[in-house]
Amino acid sequence: MTTLKMTDRTNEQWIAALRHKGEAAQSDALEDLRTRLKRSIYFYLSQDRSDLRGLAAHELAHLADDLAQDATLRVIDNLDKFRGESRFTTWATKIGIRLAISDLRRSRYKDFSLDELTADGDLLPISERWSSTAAPTPEKVAERDDVRDKIEAALKEALTERQYQALVAVALKGIPMDVLAERMGTNRNALYKLIHDARRKLKTHLEAQGISTEYMMNLFGN
To answer: 111 phi and psi, to 5 degrees?
Structure first.
């Protein structure tokens, strides 16, 4: 029997071959799938990721190979979720690229530590985040500095340590939700609620001092 090439298989043939455990058909299908995923992931790494342009071709190839191995296993684990609404290879490639994005994001923040997010010291990112391009008047500068101080104080006074860490990590540090959830030993839904509660408490605390969201937007947006 002639072995089907990866470009010859229909969706049904892919699924059937990948489910034939211990048979040559499955071995061939797995290798074809891994090869296809490696090629797609390598293209993504080399063409769509500007942050990786400093890597040599062989380094990208090695990274793509590792990711393709993991992606192949992920596809096999999720075969029952394939609904046939697209080509199987398109569906598998999406899984591979999502895995690559997730892995690279986690690698980027591998040195991130919650210990860095304490209520000690100034929150410089607030100043950087809300700096205006237009040169403000001395009066406006003084007003902004005063409000910044009150915002920083509110972050430290109104929130629990966990709320503080979550809000600062996401809103000011740009840490991805899934990375932060893992570091904090929680899940995305619980983290969403934690941040929602923190924002609500912060808003209430500031409004009690006469600082509304509209006022802050007008103050720092002009």
So the answer is: -95, 0
Alpha carbon separation from 158 to 119, 131, 178 (Å, rounded):
11, 24, 25
Region of 5 on the Ramachandran plot (φ > 0 left; ψ -120 to 50 alpha; else beta): beta
Q: Residue 182 is encoded by which pair of tokens?
A: 């893992």
- Taking the mean position of all CA atoms in its chain, how far away is CA 211? 32
User: Do residues 144 and 122 make contact, with C-beta atoms less than 8 angstroms apart?
Assistant: no
Main-chain dihedrals φ then ψ at residue 166, nearest 5 degrees: -65, -50
Q: What is the pLDDT at residue 129?
A: 44
What amino acid is encoded at 124 in this protein? Answer: L
User: How much is the pTM?
Assistant: 0.54
d(CA 58, CA 60): 5
State the residue for tokens 């034939």: 20
Dihedral sign computed on CA atoms, order 32, 35, 39, 42? positive
CA distances from 112 to 67, 124, 183, 195 (A): 22, 17, 9, 18
Give the length of the chain.
222
What angle is formed at CA 32 by the lines to CA 30 and CA 38, rounded to 5 degrees? Answer: 100
Q: Treating both helix axes as pointing N-terminal to C-terminal, what angle do 57-77 and 24-43 enclose, rounded to 10 degrees?
A: 130
Question: Which pLDDT band, with edges at 50, 70 and 90, does 80 fall under?
Answer: very high
| Torsion sign over Cα 202, 206, 212, 213 | negative
- Distance from C-alpha of 161 to C-alpha of 125, rounded to nearest angstrom: 18
Within 78-160, residue ranges assigned H as helices are 88-108, 124-129, 138-158
